[in-house]
Structures are given as structure tokens and as C-alpha cells.
DNA sequence: ACTTGGCACTCGGGAATGCAGAGTGCTAGA
DNA sequence: TCTAGCACTCTGCATTCCCGAGTGCCAAGT
């Protein structure tokens, strides 16, 4: 009976604080939630909770506020993800289904997530590592120049202009293209370096310098894209009246790909939703991040999530992130 | 003599206000700038300037602040663009030269501009209208599916997956590709619709449905990209301690492509630098925008600029925008 | 062993007050 | 036409004061 009520009190504190964003006192608690006890009892419980580090008071004689540890307990044990209504799910689905290409999918996803959660949404482009080569195209531009286009099964297209050491004609290019595609078609991007290693040797003598140049650019493309692109949307949601953390820091972090990457984090578990609360974050203490992996089928391609104040509505945010991750996975699998 | 000094006073007010961001009074003026007259005289001049609408006082017995009209006069007649130092120019050049593709050019440009001006930078992707077709590629994916890739001379690549009404094989695709390229190679994108109008008729009967489908997707790609992509960077600079305007509005505008487009404005004159001050802006009164066109050679491809508080250092901002516009034009022309 | 009511205590935040400084407009004189 | 002086106005800042919300603790009740 004892511990049970304390947990209920913690839950109530988190919920109230999230909705009012003001420290919550013992009186207010018993009024709103029908705990069957008096404020004094609650006060005792709160004293214990505070001693254990789950809540704190901003200053003497103010109500209590959850600590990071308190939110953590709340998220882990006291709440469950709130699923989206079916109407919302339908809306998500149709909105995402309208995308025309990968860029569009990512763009729509990030905007949708920002709008749903009223927070800053962050989406990582699908990682190349897990994807496969669908086609490699070599397009002659001039005598000494070709454009190399790499198309992957996620719909992503990378292109580079390559300056060649010697003249090439349409026929030789076509041959190289055929060899290259025969070799690479359908293979995973991270296998590409191994597969092309001995490729020049299989070509006629005179093609080797050109082929070597092209291959080196191809490999460069792969590593360049290795540290992936990340986009965000909904920065305007940061301007909410109550954002205690330095706006400047957050905005700077958002524009710094590397930091953003760290924030999204590595996937400890593929499909699970990860929540990082306040000081658990590598940078940007004072904010929380709710993230999930997404990707077609079983293999996780990348991550997406939202960033918001520590005081956020975790159940619904997690619900939204989960729903969006699922639907975008579905869209990607279909295309 | 009379009017001359009044202008000098206005210039001094603008300069002081820009650097201190506090209303400037008559005493402070004569101290800092060595006008050869007494504060009282300045006060008279200020009274006149105020009556003419160039300056205003936030409240009685405060210093004066320039109005939009005042800034306008300052920009038009009282100041001249401050060129960048050669060291800065070199830095810009080498930074931009490191770009590997169009995306990278745009990304680097926008970041550079944000950093140089310490404001929000906005860059529009080169417009397709003015660019030309370099190559059209049709890549078979399955029996009923091809990928259409459009490469333009600005290095931009658009791709779409096309579902075909009937089966096609490699040979027929190659033929279509050849016809398409023969027809479109090097032509301006805005001419494409005319050029392809009668194209199906020049193909064998059985290819027509497939060709029609492909063409319709091609045209769709063109119009979709017509309203162009715009990117921004440096949002963190909005968090400067003194930003009177609603942060929220600005951030929202930044994420709204259409609004951003309007803000950058149409080019009244191709190479000139346009300055829009405060209420001259279609949206976002209270901010100023300094923009310029850029593009390889004579033809202007798109626009770039920065957005900042009305109280900004126009001469140096204009210098930075001009320099960046020039160098990015140069880079684009070279590639 | 908990729970409850009462009570004294603490502290933040808003309103009211007062003061100093900066800036102006006006007028009379050079 | 400019200058000097003077009275006036207003903001910003610090100080003070007070109210109310909320706590902790203690003693009494179940």
C-alpha cells in the first residue's frame, strides 16, 4: 500500500507538471486526482520521493517538480505509450503515401512529426550501409568527363562528375557500365569496396586508368555519405513561451550534423523507442529526446525522433514517434 | 550646408544605433562623431528629421531611433557597400571550392553566409527554368518499372520511378533513351514541354503508351521543381539577445518555402543587391532582407541573401552578400 | 504504524515607491 | 543661424512591502 501510493503520487506530479508547467503542490494534487488521502499525507510521501531523488523543489515553499530520475521512472514503469487514434493513423498514412521520391519522403516525415508532436523533429536519411546497389550509371559528358550516378534500393541517388585521365567514347563507357553493373547489381554498399578491388584487371589495358579513376570516385561517394545527412523541422516550436534551456544552444546543435547524430543515438535495440531525458543526453542537457529506428522490413535503416523540453508528454510523444516510424518504414519497403 | 548636416546626423544616428542598439541622444552624437556643433543644434536637426519621418523616439525623452524610411535613405544615399578584405575573400573562395556537388555547394554557401553575417542566411536552389538538359537516363528496374533520371547542367539530378502500362525490355528502353536525348540534349528546361509534345508519334506504335507515361512523369518533375527548394542556416543567430520581432513568426516563415520565396523576392535587376527594410517586406515586418541574384555567367539562376533585424549593419552585410553571390556564381560556372 | 489537522515558517513575485540620469523643447542671447 | 541654459518628462533600477502558496513538523486521532 505504501510504495504503491508513492508511485501514484509521482505519476500525478509528472502528469500535472506536464500539463500546467508549474510546480505542483500537495493541495493541488489531492484536488485533481482523487487520491483518497489528505494533503498532509501526500506531503510526507513527497518528502520521501524528494529524498530518493525523484522530485525536487525549485525553491523552498514551492511545489515539486520531477527530476530527470523521476521522469525516467515515470517513462519506464508508470506510463504506457499512448497509441494514436485511427483517424490520426490514417492521416499519417495518406500524407506519407503522397511522397514522390526519397527526399520527399524524408521531408514529409520530418514535417509531419514536428506537427504531430509540436516539437522539433529530426530525421536521419536512410543509411547507405544497409542498402544495396540498384544501378550504376556512367553518362559521358565530354571526351574527358563522365557523370557517375549511383542509385540505391532506397531510392537514393548520388552523382559525381569525374574528370578522366584520357579520352573515352560511348562504346567504352557502355562496356565499363555493363561490367560495373554486372559486378555490383544488388550488392550491399558496404561490400562494394571488396567487389571492385580487382575490377580494373578484368578490363582491357587501355580502359584501366579511366576505370581506376571512376572507381576511386565511386568509393569516395560511399564514404562521404557514410556520415549521414540529417534534417530537422519545427524549430518554431522551440519558441514556446516556456523553454527554459538556451534557445541558442539548441538551434546551434540542430544545425550541427554531428551533434544531431549523437543526439539521435545509436540503436540499442532495433525497433524499440529510446527516450533520453535531460542529463542523459550527451549534449543539450535540459532537453529530452524520443527516438526510434525505422527501415524497411527487419533491417533498420536509420533513426528519427523528436527533441523537446524535459517536461514533455512522453506517452503521446512516444506514440507519435512510433506511429510515424512504422508508417515511413512501410512506405520505404513498398517503393 | 543645412541639409548636408542633417544627412550627416542621420547617418551618425544609424551608425550609432546599429552598433549600440540603444536610442541615441544629441549629446552622445556630438561626443562620438566630431560634428562641429553643439548638442542643441543637433536637437533642432533631429526635430526636423523626426518631422520628416526619418527618425522617431520610442518615448518622450529618449534618444532617437531610425525609422524604416530613415534606413532606406541611409542605404540609398548615405552609405556604400563595404567590400570584404582580401583575406576574407580568399577564405570564401577556398571554402566554396571544396564542394563536391550541387547540394554541397548550396550547403556550404548558406552556412558560409550565415557565419559571415552572423545572421540567418537563405539560399534558393538554382532554378531549372534557366538551366539546360545535360542528359536524360532511363534505367530499367523491372519489367514494368523504370527509373527516370534527369541531369541538368547545374549538376542537379532528379529522379522518379515510373510504373509502365506494359512490358519493356532493355532494347526498347535504349531506343527511347536515344530518341529522348537526341531531342532534348542541351535544351532549356522550359522548352522541354514543347519539344516532347509530338515525340510519341515518332516512335513505333507499341512503344507509345510507355513513352507517354514516361513523358508525363518527366513533365511532372519539371513543374514539381518549379517552385524551387530553399534552404536556410544560422537560425541560432536569431537567438541574439536583442531580437524584437517574434522569434516564432520568423522561424515559421523560415520553414515555409513559399514565404521564404516571397521574401527573397523577384530580381528587379539581375546583379544588383536588393535591400528590403522592415515594413517593405511582404511578410515579417520588422526584419530586413539583403538579397542578390547569382548564377553562372550572365543568366541569373537564383537568389540568395540574409535575413536580420532592421537594425543591421547594412554596408558590411551587403558586402558579404555580394561577395558570396559572386563566388558561388563563379563556382557554378566552372563546374 | 499511518494518517490527519493545525500552525509557524519561508520564500518568490507583483505592486508601489522613490531616485537618478538622460534627453528633450523652448527661449533668449550671440 | 547657432548656442547656452533651464525646466520638464520619462525610463530604468533599486528598494520596500506584502500576500499567498507551499512546506515541515508536531501532536493527536484511528
Comma- or semicolon-separated keywords:
homodimer; 335 residues; alpha+beta; Arc Repressor Mutant, subunit A; Beta-Lactamase; Enolase-like, domain 1; 3 domains; five-stranded antiparallel sheet; three-stranded antiparallel sheet; 12 helices; 10 strands; 46% helix; DNA-binding; WHTH_transcript_rep_HrcA_IDD (chains A, B); DNA binding (chains A, B); DNA-binding transcription factor activity (chains A, B); WH-like_DNA-bd_sf (chains A, B); DeoR_HTH (chains A, B)
Task: Explain the overall architecture.
Two copies of one chain form a homodimer. In chain A, helix 1 crosses helix 4, helix 5 runs antiparallel to helix 6 and helix 6 runs antiparallel to helix 12. The first copy, chain A, has a five-stranded antiparallel sheet, with helices on both faces. A three-stranded antiparallel sheet of chain A has the order 4-5-6. A two-stranded antiparallel sheet of chain A has the order 1-2. Chain A is elongated. The first copy, chain A, is built from twelve helices and ten strands. Chain A is of the alpha+beta class. The model of chain A has no long low-confidence stretch (mean pLDDT about 85). Chain A has three domains: about 70 residues, Orthogonal Bundle (Arc Repressor Mutant, subunit A); about 150 residues, GAF domain (Beta-Lactamase, 2-Layer Sandwich); about 100 residues, 2-Layer Sandwich (Enolase-like, domain 1), CATH 3.30.390. At the A-B interface, strand 4, strand 5, strand 6 and helix 10 of A face strand 4, strand 5, strand 6 and helix 10 of B. Chain B binds a DNA duplex (30 and 30 nucleotides) through helix 2 and helix 3. Chains A, B: It comes from Sinosporangium siamense. Chains A, B: Keywords: Repressor, Stress response, Transcription, Transcription regulation.
Amino acid at each position: 500500500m505504501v510504495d504503491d501510493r508513492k508511485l501514484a503520487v509521482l505519476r500525478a506530479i509528472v502528469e500535472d507538471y506536464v500539463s500546467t508547467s508549474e510546480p505542483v503542490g500537495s493541495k493541488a494534487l489531492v484536488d485533481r486526482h482523487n487520491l483518497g488521502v489528505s494533503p498532509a499525507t501526500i506531503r510526507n510521501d513527497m518528502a520521501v520521493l524528494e529524498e530518493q531523488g525523484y522530485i525536487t523543489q525549485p525553491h523552498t515553499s514551492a511545489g515539486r517538480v520531477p527530476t530527470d530520475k523521476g521522469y525516467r521512472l515515470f517513462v519506464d514503469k508508470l506510463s504506457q505509450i499512448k497509441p494514436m487514434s485511427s483517424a490520426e493513423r490514417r492521416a499519417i498514412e495518406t500524407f506519407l503515401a503522397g511522397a514522390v521520391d526519397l527526399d520527399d519522403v524524408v521531408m514529409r516525415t520530418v514535417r509531419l512529426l514536428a506537427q504531430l508532436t509540436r516539437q522539433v523533429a529530426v530525421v536521419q536519411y536512410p543509411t547507405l550501409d544497409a542498402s544495396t546497389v540498384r544501378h550504376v550509371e556512367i553518362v559521358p559528358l565530354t571526351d574527358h568527363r563522365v557523370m557517375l550516378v549511383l542509385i540505391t534500393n532506397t531510392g537514393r541517388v548520388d552523382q559525381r562528375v569525374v574528370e578522366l585521365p584520357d579520352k573515352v567514347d560511348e562504346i567504352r563507357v557502355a562496356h565499363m557500365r555493363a561490367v560495373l553493373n554486372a559486378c555490383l547489381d544488388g550488392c550491399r554498399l558496404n561490400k562494394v569496396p571488396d567487389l571492385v578491388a580487382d575490377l580494373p584487371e578484368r578490363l582491357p589495358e587501355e580502359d584501366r586508368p579511366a576505370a581506376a579513376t571512376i572507381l576511386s570516385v565511386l568509393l569516395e561517394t560511399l564514404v562521404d555519405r557514410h556520415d549521414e545527412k540529417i534534417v530537422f523541422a519545427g524549430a518554431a516550436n522551440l519558441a514556446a513561451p516556456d523553454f527554459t534551456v538556451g534557445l541558442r544552444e539548441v538551434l546551434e546543435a540542430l544545425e550541427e550534423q554531428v551533434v544531431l547524430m549523437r543526439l539521435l543515438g545509436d540503436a540499442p535495440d532495433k525497433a524499440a523507442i529510446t527516450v533520453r531525458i535531460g542529463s542523459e543526453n550527451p549534449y543539450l542537457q535540459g532537453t529530452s529526446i524520443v527516438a526510434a529506428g525505422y527501415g524497411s522490413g527487419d533491417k533498420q535503416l536509420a533513426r528519427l525522433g523528436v527533441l523537446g523540453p524535459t517536461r514533455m508528454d512522453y506517452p503521446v510523444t512516444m506514440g507519435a514517434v512510433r506511429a510515424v516510424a512504422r508508417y515511413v518504414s512501410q512506405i520505404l519497403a513498398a517503393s
